[in-house]
């Protein structure tokens, strides 16, 4: 975007350098003129957006230069801000009657200067811009275009409830040992039944010597003694 152009008419070089530095820092383009006549010539050539006019200058002073600028149909719409050290009663009225649009007293307050320039450069002659209707964004338009969704009424539906499964932690701990004992008893009973049902033959029990008849033992000894007494052939 092209920066706004400001014509500064001032015979004091130090003042011009100070104001120019401030305005350039704010993004403005500054054109300089050292007296009233040169200011009129530069305004006709450059057509600035705003003019800062010093009042007390040798030759053509600021009020006369401003009167000639306002009489020019091409330049009269350019706002002129007067900068002066005159603080006497009636000075402001005379300066405003000469055609200046605003009046700032020296020494220059830089903040006030910048605010005044910004106010005038928003619209011609510093008028307040008309209020513009608030634009409606595309997102808001889409939201308005979407119809409202009506949620249907919820019917009274009874859903089946799953049965609650008892987890091991909910069992009675006293029942666990009983279950284990019953299981072992069943195992022993099954094994006993299996043994009793077996049909295999049982070997006879040999008779031990303690169960023999004592008289038979004596007879055996007598026979053995007789055999031993027979002579050998």
Molecular shape: rod-shaped
Structural class: alpha/beta
Helix fraction by DSSP (H/I, runs of at least 4) = 40-55%
**Count of DSSP strands:** 5
Distance between the termini: 163 Å
Mean pLDDT: 74
Strand content: 5-15%
Widest beta sheet: strand line-up:
2-1-3-4-5
As residue ranges, the low-confidence spans are 123-129, 175-184, 206-210
Count of helices?
Answer: 8
Task: Determine Rg (CA atoms, Å).
Answer: 65 Å
Order of helices and strands: EHEHEHEHEHHHH
Major sheet, described briefly?
5 strands, parallel
Characterize the structure shown.
By secondary structure, the chain is an alpha/beta fold. It contains 8 helices and 5 strands, in the order E-H-E-H-E-H-E-H-E-H-H-H-H. The protein has a 5-stranded parallel β-sheet with strand order 2-1-3-4-5, sandwiched between helices. Helix 4 links the parallel strand 4 and strand 5. Helix 2 packs parallel to helix 3. It is rod-shaped, with a radius of gyration of 65 Å. About 9% of the residues have low confidence.
């Amino acid at each position: 975007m092209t920066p706004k152009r400001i014509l500064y008419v001032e015979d004091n070089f130090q003042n011009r350098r100070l104001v120019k530095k401030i305005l350039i820092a704010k993004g403005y383009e500054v054109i300089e003129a050292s007296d009233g006549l040169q200011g009129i010539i530069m305004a006709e050539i450059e057509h600035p957006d705003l003019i800062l006019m010093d009042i007390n200058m040798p030759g053509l002073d600021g009020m006369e230069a401003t009167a000639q600028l306002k009489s020019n149909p091409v330049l009269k719409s350019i706002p002129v801000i007067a900068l002066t050290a005159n603080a006497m009663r009636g000075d402001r009225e005379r300066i405003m009657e000469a055609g200046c649009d605003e009046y700032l007293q020296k020494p220059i307050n830089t903040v006030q200067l910048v605010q005044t320039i910004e106010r005038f450069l928003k619209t011609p002659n510093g008028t307040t811009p008309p209020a513009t209707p608030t634009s409606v964004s595309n997102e808001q338009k889409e939201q308005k275009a979407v119809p409202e969704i009506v949620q249907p009424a919820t019917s009274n539906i009874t859903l089946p409830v799953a049965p609650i499964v008892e987890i091991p932690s909910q069992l009675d701990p006293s029942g666990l040992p009983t279950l284990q004992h019953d299981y072992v008893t069943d195992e022993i009973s099954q094994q006993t039944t299996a043994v009793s049902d077996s049909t295999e033959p049982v070997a006879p029990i040999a008779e031990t010597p303690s169960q023999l008849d004592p008289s038979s033992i004596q007879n055996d000894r007598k026979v053995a003694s007789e055999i031993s007494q027979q002579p050998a052939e």
